[in-house]
Amino acid sequence: MIKAFISHSSQQKAYAKALVEILSRTACILDEYDFEPAKKSKDEIFRNIRNADIFILLISQSALASDWVRMEIAKARERKEKDKIEFFPYIIDPSVEFTEENIPDWITKEEVYNLKIYTSVRLLSRDIIQKQQEIIYKKHPEIKIRDDLFVGRNNEIELLETKLYTAGNYSQIKAIIVSGRKYIGRRKFLKKFTQSKLNYTKAPLEIHLQRGESIENFILQLNDYLLKYNLKDFAWDTWDKEEKVGVAVELLNEAYKIKQHILIVDDGACIAPSGSVADWFTDILTSYDLVKFIGLFVASARTPKSYYIKDRKDCLFIELHPLSEIDRKNLFYAYAINIGLTDISKEDAIFWITKLQGSPEQIYIAIDSIRRDGRMIAKYNADHIISVGDKSIKEIVDYCKNEGYGDLKLLDIMILLAYLGSISDHMLLKIVGDDLKDNCYKIIDQLHYLSLIEFFGPSSEYIQLDAGISDYIERAGYKLLPRFSERMEKQTQEYLSEPIEKSFETDDLSDYMYKLQAAIKNGTCDSKYLIPSVAIKSIIDLYNREHYNSVISLCEGFLKEGNRIYRDARREIAEFNLQMQQNSD
Fold first, then answer.
1. Which pTM value belongs to this model?
2. Half-sphere exposure of 379 (CA within 13 A, CB side)
3. CB 3.0–4.6 Å: which of 70, 338, 438, 532 could bond 569 by disulfide?
């Protein structure tokens, strides 16, 4: 715990107590709470300063005139010169000038502290928390490594930078909106971008908005930091939209004066359920009075629809999806090396990277577990580590169980996508059927708005479910709708009824892969079409359906392919084969 000694005058007691309540009493030393009764005040001052890590001087006219405060400053300086304490002075009285005679010369002339005025207790508390965090980083560098570590997303960073500097009118841009499901790394991405590309050093003022909340909630939360208005000043019953926008813009400009940017963690307020940017947010961005400064950043759990945002000049948009396998691998090794684990084998890395698809947090926990408990126990507890990311995914899945169109739920299509992997829109509709086609279109649109799927391919014709959610659905054992299973089985029989060479005459990649998997499971696939990933998917499907003899036959057949299959794929097939052999014994 980093302890802060709060030096103040008795006339500023209310300000000091409000500050301590925000920072927490356990992290602060204040005379009223921490000085022992019936002890000499001077002794208590010296004892508590000795026990503090940082000394916070609240400068006011009354503090500068106080003999007790001067004594505290002198003691703090003595310990500072011995590197026993950090010293941070703040002006909280607007009538105090930097050149005030009563401010000790060593503060203004020798050390030349950058004295800023903080009339807002909340803004001051944020600065102190940041100072405390820096001291924690010095004492525990492994925490800083983890907080600062940012591996991957290079393509997204470059894309956003390109959008920023090739925009038609750079000065019109007021906000950057990053969408993606929760725990995908939206906030860390924005932190990296603002620090490395915009050179913003301060932590943002963080505002959280839920679906149904609007400009009033934005104003209240922002004012809670700046304290420009008293709560009784807000006239929600008489203010029209224009007046509310004016207040919001006034507060933003106040924040921008001190180079303070804003992070909105958005769950349906800024990006409306329609997939458009909310009207109130647009009104703020297009206000003539808003300072030209890129100061609003939105981490949205909802993805805007392209036709709503294509002509916007005031915002930049980028969509994040789960880390790719190569990014997970780079993050895994980077964190391991940074905390001193330099001898992780390739096999161990593959074990974890293939399992941890939910969030970067799982990778950190896995590495921490290996360092603390050793490789064997960490692997034994792998399922518990994986479950760390399951809570947020479970919330998403539970929501999608109940949302849908007609008899078709969002989760029904998600399970189908998890089962099929990457699939073309043509192939998906073929399996869903004409009678559910319209509802399927609506669900795909809704899943994209919820940031749960992505599109790719030459014409963005292929659909893929979020990797972490797909992995969760498979592990949870969700079953396909019977009608989907029946249609897939019928499709398989149609493929198998025609000569294999003829069945592969297609330009649809997902159609080709599906036919290939059907042929592999049926034992009629020519080895020239062997793709190990499809083989493994076929083996897993047969295993889940308890067709163990077919699993053994497939494993042994593919293992005969020798050097044609890379070692990692061979090992995975061999493990299935060994498991089946042991079960049969």
1. 0.69
2. 10
3. 532
